Structures are given as C-alpha cells and as structure tokens.
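ok here's RING-type domain-containing protein:
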Amino acid sequence: MSDFLRMQAERGGGTDWVFNEIFAHMQNDLAHQRKLKELSDNLPRLTEQDLAAAGETDSPCPICLTPFAAILAEEEMALAMDTPAHPVEQLGVTRFKDTCKHIFCRKDALSWMRQGRVTCPTCRRPFIELPNDAPVADGQQPPSAAPGADPGEHFVNSADLFMGAMENLRDMGIDPEAFFVQATRGARRQEDDREPEFSGMYS
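and the structure:
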C-alpha cells in the first residue's frame, strides 16, 4: 500500500508537497470533527418555557414530525425512571442557539450531526465554521498538471486517492497519520539513497 501511495504522489512531480497537503487536510478534518463533537456535547436542553417564548409550543420536530410537547413529556417520563429506554443525551428538545436558532428533537439533531453534517436541516445554514484549505508551505510548488488542465484538478485527484486510502486504513484499524509518516520517511530514504548514484554519475 505505501509503495502504491508513493508512486501516485511521485507521478504528480512533488512527493513532499502532496504529503504535506494531505496532512493539512487530515488536520482540518480532525479540527472539524472536534468542533462538531464540542457543539453536539453542548447542545442546550429547551424547556416548555423556552418553546413558549419561541412560539413553538405546538410545533413538531421538522425531521421526525413528533410534536415538541410530546417529546418533552417523553423526556420527563424517562428521566423519572431508573433506566430510561433511550440514552439521556438523546432525550428532549434542542436548538442551534448560536446560528439560525431552529429547533429540533435532540435525538434527530444529534443523529444529523453524527453523520458529519454541518448545516441546519431546515435552512442549510452552517452551524460550525467550515475548515479552510491550508496554504502551500513556503518554498514548495504544487505538482505539475497537464497542459490546459485546471491547476487544482491534479491535486483534487491525488487528494481523492489519499483520502480514500485514509478511510481504508481506518477501517483496517491502522492509524492513517502514523502510516503516512512512515510512508514519507520511506520515500525520503529512497531519495537519499539515490543521491550518491547521481553524484557518482557526474563526478
């Protein structure tokens, strides 16, 4: 697998650049997941008074269409039990308080977010800041693209390859970051091994 990944990177004409960009995407992905988890862990619990103040007492959840009043009643009953039928964090009603303020049952809101979605199901407004692509590091050039091609097209194709490989590694229980570190070191060792050969040719 590592030889295949290095071969694909080298075809672009810039192994280090591609690896660094992939690491940047990995870091953005991790930051994105942390933000999403932090938001889901801190979703507010709305009360009957909160719903009344928002004029939503008789409204249903836009996703499951269960009335909010029924969801609150279910939460109250479940919390009175020693062993609730559903996890406590999924009970009740919540809202995206820092952005659009749309209201949902907590179960559906958490399910939506755990699928990696970052926009409100109702208005599609992002409820977390999306990570930006990292800039190219100083002194490094992107891989050469075919004449007339979109300058970003080659990297997008390479990134798709690497991101797919990263998911496969996760599925196999392998830490992708550690794997790419080893692959990068292996590629650099090969380059270092080639240097004496080239120096001998021109000596």
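+1. Residues 2-34+146-197 form one domain.
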